[in-house]
Amino acid sequence: MRDAWEIVKKEFVCDMRSRTGLGTGVLFAVSSAVSLGLAGSKFEASASVIAGLTWAAVLFTSVVAVSRTFIAEEEAKTADLLRVFGRMSAVFWGKVVYASAVMICLGFLQAGLVLVLLSGSVADPLMFIASLASGCCTLAVGLTVCSSMAARAGGGAGLAGVMAIPLLLFVLAPGIAALRASLGDPLPNAWASVVALVGFGSALCAAGPYAFAAAWKS
Known about the structure:
By secondary structure, this protein is mainly α. The protein contains 10 helices and no strands. Helices cover 81% and strands 0% of the residues.
């Protein structure tokens, strides 16, 4: 646990220096949310439209913000140091925790901006928080695993995004359904969508370390 926390702190310090992850993610999140707000300012957006636009924007923001998790290590020539001095499990979970924290911040920032600009309102705050938090964490885990494989394959962030998008599209359906319900659109068994998000994220957390280990040792 302590080793993983050290990786989290390292990620934060490196991100603040380079501003390639969180900084780029904030810029993309704000610009995309403002663009959606300007495009939808002439009509009254329904809860389903707001939910769909929000999750599409969050999905692509995640690719911009956290797809370079391991690729940056390869480019900076620090990946070999992590392999020598860092425990594999600590490296993986440290990266996942930091990526999840970044995505939660960006997801709520983006969703808040879209709601304000499209004049939306939250009817169920608990479901709103649960759907966004679980979905953002699932995106972070999936992109972390894909980033590790893309880095070892010699690809850039674009390759990680291409690898991750088909996998992470499964987040959209339950994510949109849960967010629609939280915005006041009556849906039966809306909490089942949140459970689906948590279940998919848990499956990625269970399988992710094995995929990461195969890429990390190669």
